[in-house]
Write a structure and sequence with these properties.
About 60% of the residues lie in helices and about 5% in strands. The chain is mostly helical. It has one domain. The protein contains 10 helices and 6 strands.
Length: about 300
């Protein structure tokens, strides 16, 4: 572990209250800080919507939390294996990924709070009440990668090649989490034009829509879109990614943004900025980032030394 990384890990430990962090040799599998972070993620996620009935444990276990926590663990493991196959510093890449995920969760919450300040400003104690729900994907996509890039630069981890190792697995995590959310039966879209969409209990229906029985299952739509993006990401990983490091990351950002822009038009719970939906604005920015990033990846791949 480099001196810069050791100092940063100690700072992050103090910031997030992580304890019992032990030094790891470069060849160790599953760094100890991963267990502490993922334990916190698990505790956070277990309070997410959609309960799983259980009489044997004193906590409420929910499908959304189970799927999110499991996908993060599996994603880090698969990313580690892929980095090893490509001859990259797998331990460092996974460590960057862990902190990026944790930062992404914080960013997702801050994004949610910022665009619902009318509520959180009146009830500031609810800002930390993540067990009541409220994580916005775009906030995670902004803060997580920024922290990841910052740490990668400090720890001399190859940014573009490292992001290629992690991004398909983050897409899998998002697909699993969206699938878990679709099991909540809480509608997030307007009444459908045609029959056949998901039904909702009257108590779960949004204000002003109690008379409607059927709603578009937008979380399911997003889950299916993420599955399609994951399939395409694996195709890119097998073809273009080895020649253009970083292309996989930006392909994911662009494709996710396209799907989210379309699906957001169906939702009733969007954040609004005047007459514009904030998630759609963020999706447009995501598409621009993807285009610029792909151009950057192409330029780097054409140079003698790649990212």
């Amino acid at each position: 572990m480099s001196l810069a990384r050791r100092a940063d890990v100690a700072t992050l430990d103090r910031l997030f209250g992580v304890t019992d962090i032990r030094e790891q040799s470069p060849g160790d599998h599953g760094p100890s800080d991963a267990r502490d972070i993922l334990a916190g993620v698990l505790a956070l996620a277990m309070s997410s919507p959609a309960p799983l009935p259980s009489r044997s444990v004193p906590i409420v276990i929910r499908w959304y939390g189970i799927l999110m926590a499991t996908s993060i663990v599996v994603g880090l493991w698969l990313g580690y294996r892929q980095a090893k196959r490509e001859g990259l510093p797998a331990d460092d890449i996974v460590s960057v990924g862990q902190w990026a995920i944790l930062a992404g969760l914080v960013g997702a919450r801050l994004y949610e709070v910022a665009f619902n300040w009318d509520y959180y400003g009146r009830y500031p104690s609810k800002i930390v009440a993540v067990w009541e729900g409220g994580l916005a994907m775009h906030g995670g996509l902004i803060v997580g990668p920024l922290v990841g890039v910052w740490l990668a630069r400090r720890w001399n981890v190859p940014i573009l090649r490292g992001s290629t190792s992690r991004r398909p697995r983050w897409c899998w995590a998002r697909r699993s989490a969206a699938g878990g959310t679709s099991s909540t039966r809480k509608p997030s879209a307007g009444p459908p034009i045609c029959h056949g969409s998901s039904t909702s209990r009257r108590s779960n229906r949004p204000l002003g829509y109690a008379q409607y029985e059927f709603f578009h299952p937008t979380f399911l739509y997003e889950s299916l879109w993420d599955l399609a993006v994951l399939s395409d990401a694996d195709r890119v990983a097998a073809s273009a990614a080895p020649r253009r490091p970083g292309s996989l990351f930006f392909a994911y950002v662009g494709l996710y943004s396209i799907g989210r822009f379309a699906i957001e038009a169906l939702r009733l719970d969007s954040f609004w900025l005047g007459s514009l939906r904030v998630p759609q604005l963020a999706s447009v920015v995501g598409m621009l980032v993807a285009v610029i990033g792909m151009a950057w990846a192409n330029a780097v791949s054409a140079s003698p030394v790649a990212g």
